[in-house]
Amino acid sequence: MVVKVYGSDLASAKRVLVCLIEKEVEFETVPIDIIKGQNKDPDFLNLQPFGVVPVIQDGDYTLFESRAIIRYYAEKYKSQGTDLLGKSIEERGAVEQWIEVEAQNYHPAIVNLVIEILFARKKGIPSDEKVIEESEKKLGKVLDIYEERLSKSKYLAGNFFSLADLSHLPFTKFLADMGKMYLIEERKHVKAWWDDISNRPSWKVVSSSRWLLLE
Question: Is-above-0.90 flag for pTM?
Answer without folding.
Answer: yes
